[in-house]
Design a protein that fits this description.
Rossmann fold; five-stranded antiparallel sheet; 28% helix
Length: 222
C-alpha cells in the first residue's frame, strides 16, 4: 500500500505540472538527503528521448505491456510497434495519461496484475526494475514478469549503472510542496547481481547497450 500512496503524491505532482504548476518534486533517501526529481522528464516528446529509450522502443514488438507507464509519453511511439497496454499503480497518474490522450492505459499493480493475454514485449523505462524494493521483491517481480510473457517474449528494461556494490535497498520519501508521502522501497543493483537474480528464475539477461549512466537489457526465458 505504501508504494501506491507514495505514487499518488507523485501523481498529484504530475497532474500539477500538466496544469502549469512547476513546483519541485523531491525524493528523500534514508540518510535524509533530498534529491530533485525532474517531472519534465515524464512529459518529453519522442525527439527528447535518450538513445537507450529510442532503442528500447525500436526493439519492441507484438503485444506490448508498458509497466509503470506514467504520463504515457512513450505509448504513442510503442503503438507504432504493436498493440500496447500501459499500466501504473496510481489512479492519478493514469488520469494524467488519459488527459494526454492515452486511451490504452489503466490502473494496475504489476505484482497483482493478471491478464488473459500473454505479451511479446514487456517494457520498463526509468529504472522501473527497482520497484521490487528488496532482493525478495525483485525476485517476485521477475517471476511475475516471466509469467506474463509469451513463449518467445522479451522483457526490455533500462537500468541505472550501479557499480559500488552488488545492490542497495533504498527507502525513499516523496515530497511535493507542503506534502510528504509515504516512504516506499526502491532497489538498485549491479548488472552482475541482476544477472544472478535472472538465472535463479531461469531467465537469460543480455546487455544491448550501455553508457556511463544507463544500460538497456533484454531478459528472456532460457
Amino acid at each position: 500500500m505504501s508504494m501506491k500512496k507514495s505514487m499518488d503524491l507523485f501523481g498529484e505532482a504530475l497532474l500539477g505540472y500538466f496544469n502549469g504548476d512547476k513546483s519541485n518534486f523531491y525524493l528523500k533517501d534514508q540518510s535524509g538527503k533530498k534529491h530533485t526529481y525532474s517531472l519534465a522528464d515524464r512529459f518529453r516528446p519522442y525527439s527528447k528521448l535518450n538513445k537507450s529509450e529510442i532503442k528500447l522502443i525500436s526493439l519492441s514488438r507484438g503485444n506490448i505491456l508498458d509497466v509503470g507507464c506514467g504520463t504515457g509519453n512513450v505509448i504513442p511511439a510503442l503503438e507504432k510497434k504493436g498493440k500496447v497496454l500501459g499500466i501504473d499503480i496510481s489512479p492519478i497518474i493514469i488520469e494524467v495519461a488519459k488527459k494526454r490522450g492515452c486511451k490504452n492505459c489503466r490502473v494496475a499493480d504489476i505484482f497483482t496484475f493478471s491478464s488473459k493475454e500473454k505479451f511479446d514485449t514487456i517494457t520498463l523505462f526509468g529504472n522501473d526494475l527497482g520497484i521490487g524494493g528488496t532482493v525478495r521483491g525483485t525476485k517476485k517481480l521477475l517471476r511475475t514478469l516471466k509469467g506474463l510473457l509469451n513463449k518467445n517474449g522479451q522483457i526490455l528494461a533500462i537500468t541505472r549503472n550501479f557499480n559500488r556494490a552488488d545492490y542497495k535497498e533504498m527507502k525513499l520519501t516523496p515530497i511535493w510542496k507542503n506534502k510528504t508521502g509515504l516512504t516506499h522501497g526502491w532497489f538498485i543493483f549491479s548488472i552482475n547481481f541482476l544477472s544472478k537474480l535472472c538465472e535463479e528464475q531461469d531467465l537469460k539477461l543480455e546487455i544491448l547497450s550501455a553508457s556511463w549512466k544507463y544500460r538497456l537489457v533484454k531478459i528472456t526465458r532460457r
